[in-house]
TrEMBL record:
It comes from the Bacteria. Its cofactor is pantetheine 4'-phosphate. Residues 235-310 form the Carrier domain. GO terms for biological process: amino acid activation for nonribosomal peptide biosynthetic process; enterobactin biosynthetic process. The keyword Transmembrane helix does not apply. It comes from Xanthomonas arboricola pv. pruni MAFF 301420. This is Carrier domain-containing protein. The lineage of its organism: Bacteria, Pseudomonadati, Pseudomonadota, Gammaproteobacteria, Lysobacterales. GO terms for cellular component: cytosol; enterobactin synthetase complex. PANTHER family: FATTY ACID SYNTHASE, NONRIBOSOMAL PEPTIDE SYNTHETASE. One of its GO terms (molecular function) is 2,3-dihydroxybenzoate-serine ligase activity. Keywords: Phosphopantetheine, Phosphoprotein. It holds the Pfam family AMP-binding.
């Protein structure tokens, strides 16, 4: 379709795209196409007498930029399927947004609404895949691939290798004008647009896509993937390199690995890096920091690190977890965990941060001690402060916190100020204070708001959680903790780990609900996800999802908007942007003048 749109536009000058299912009398939306839209054409806006809704699993409206299911209402909606009462009741449902009692049609198509009001088609709801705990839309990856100048057609599917039980993403690519873009080139292209969980692991170049006699894609005729295209292949040369190659083949689910092949170019990510690190002690008798693969991503580099055996043992569930040693004398960056208690998400920053910066993750003691139940966010802050001062007794300090971690980082800053210490950097990623009435609201209301705010997906027919315990379980499932190989390995040593993490998550949610930040004389770098969180109704019920909500509690708030949703902020696609913001905030050039202003580059300051 994109290639056809480009050809037609070059010949006729004007082209209009119409979208609609038969059940809504054929056409429902319209989009006059421009050449700039041809690579991934939106389906446009509704026609006259037509209403379109982007709704979640509970049929509640979603904010701009969020992906949901498309429902269509209005004069064109049919009465139903003749002689198929059950199917009619499933697909034609009452329109709660219409005053006339009419029905709306559930299309089964996944879409999102752009800021200009245009609808973008993402894919079919039944085509979603779950990759390492993340729900993935193959069509969204295909659309991103089609934006590359060398790609004419692309198909992305889920693939499960016979020797590797994890579902992987497989991309079939047809190049333009006979070109064969390399997987490395396309990975780099996607990493600028998509989170790591949406980067295909396997790639198959094709001259053309197989089609059925009526011209549709014949998915059953797509060839099975072979070995990944390689640069000049160098085979393992000694026993250690052979062991590492076997480990990489198992972790990544690929057949051939050269000693100079890059772990991340082969499809590795922070979760699989954590699995590799978890295997090192048993296989090689050495424990390495989780960030090792970011500095030594090849078999040659890893073998050298293992031979030096210069690392100190690190418990992956430790409270103060070293991610990188850095240069002695350089202030470390302390990264505070989100609600589930793990700090592994910050691994993605290591490849972009100044290599001189030491980096530590602060993780919940509840990961190691199931009985650990601090009484407040302030108590957590005092505990973490005591631990981080064992490696940095004096300031200036650098802190970053994502989600719940932002509340804790702010509270640690309050403790440091009380001691007369300087905080050079306080960065908060999509972290918002609870309102006073949140503590007095019924638990079920807070839980419902949390589900909407965090964008948690409920399976069709799955009831809305009503207790914090049910919410904690849903959070653990959403983050894919059950699917993490490193967690599965830890479960062999401690079978109750996931249950303990669920209880700890539940306790963190209770503490956040009761927490009231203290006003600080402190500048804050605040990074907001462009897909803004919402409580799914009255946004003022429990949390004010605006960065300005921090204005009573800080001196200056420097706002940066990241083209991401809440859960993807620490994906590798955004690591360069986040690292640049952290670097800038620690230089004199980034000092703020305390005025209220907005800037054209997407940055705003609030005093």
């Amino acid at each position: 379709m994109p290639e056809l749109a480009t050809q037609l536009l070059s010949r006729v000058g004007r082209l209009t795209q119409l979208y609609g299912p038969t059940e809504t009398t054929i056409w429902s939306t319209i989009m006059p196409l421009q050449l700039t839209d041809a690579a991934a054409p939106p389906i446009g806006r509704p026609l006259l007498n037509t209403r379109v809704y982007v709704l979640d699993a509970q049929r509640q409206p979603l904010p701009t930029g969020a992906i949901g299911e498309l429902y269509i209402g209005g004069a064109g909606v049919a009465k139903g399927y003749r002689g198929k009462r059950q199917l009619t009741s499933e697909r034609f449902v009452r329109d709660p947004f219409a005053d006339d009692g009419s029905n709306m049609y559930l299309t089964g198509d996944r879409v999102r609404q752009r800021r200009d009001g245009m609808l973008e088609f993402i894919g079919r709801a039944d085509a979603q895949l779950k990759i390492r705990g993340h729900r993935v839309e193959p069509a969204e990856i295909e659309n991103a691939l089609l934006l590359h100048s060398q790609v004419a057609q692309a198909v992305v599917v889920g693939h499960r290798d016979g020797d590797h039980d994890a579902l992987q993403l497989l991309a079939y690519v047809v190049g333009k004008h006979g070109a064969t873009p390399s997987p490395e080139l396309l990975r780099a292209h996607l990493q600028q647009r998509l989170p790591a969980s949406m980067i295909p692991t396997l790639w198959v170049p094709l001259q053309a896509l197989p089609l059925t006699p009526n011209g549709k894609l014949d998915r059953r005729a797509l060839p099975s993937p072979g070995a990944l295209p390689q640069r000049a292949h160098v085979a393992p040369r000694d026993a250690l390199e052979h062991q590492l190659a076997a480990m990489l083949q198992d972790v990544l689910g690929i057949e051939v690995v050269g000693v100079e092949d890059n772990f991340f170019e082969l499809g590795g990510d922070s979760l699989r890096a954590a699995e590799m690190a978890a295997r090192f002690p048993q296989t090689f008798g050495v424990e390495l920091p989780l960030g090792t693969l970011f500095h030594a991503p090849t078999i040659v580099g890893l073998a050298e690190v293992i031979k030096r055996n210069a690392r100190t043992p690190n418990d992956p569930l430790g409270v103060l977890l070293p991610l990188r040693a850095g240069t002695p004398g350089t202030p470390p960056l302390f990264c505070i965990h989100p609600v589930v208690g793990l700090g592994w998400s910050y691994l993605t920053l290591l490849g972009q941060l100044d290599p001189q910066w030491p980096v530590y993750a602060l993780q919940s003691p509840g990961l190691s001690d199931p009985q650990h139940r601090p009484e407040s966010i302030e108590a957590i802050a005092r505990d973490y402060l005591a631990r981080l001062r064992t490696v940095q007794p004096q300031g200036p300090y650098r802190l970053i916190g994502w989600s719940l971690g932002g509340l804790i980082a702010h509270a640690i800053t309050a403790e440091l100020h009380a001691l007369g210490e300087e905080v050079e950097l306080l960065a908060m990623l999509d972290s918002y204070p609870h309102l006073e009435q949140a503590a007095s609201l019924p638990e079920s209301e807070n839980v419902r708001a949390s589900v909407h705010a965090l964008g948690l997906h409920l399976a069709p027919g799955q009831p809305m959680p009503t207790t914090v315990a049910e919410l904690a379980s849903l959070l653990c499932d959403h983050y894919g903790l059950n699917d993490l190989p490193a967690v599965r390995q830890l479960l062999e040593q401690r079978p109750t780990l996931l249950d303990d993490m669920g209880g700890m998550t539940q306790h963190h949610l209770h503490l956040a609900r009761r927490h009231r930040p203290k006003p600080l004389d402190q500048d804050v770098v605040f990074v907001e996800a462009s897909v803004r969180m919402t409580s799914g109704g009255d946004d003022t019920v429990w949390v004010d999802y605006r960065p300005q909500a921090w204005r009573p509690y800080v001196r200056n708030l420097q706002l940066h908007v990241l083209d991401s949703d809440h859960h993807s902020m620490l994906s590798s696609a955004h690591s360069a942007t986040l690292s640049a913001l952290l670097h800038a905030a620690t230089t004199k050039a980034a000092q703020r003048d305390g005025s209220i202003a907005t800037a054209s580059d997407g940055v705003a300051e609030y005093a």
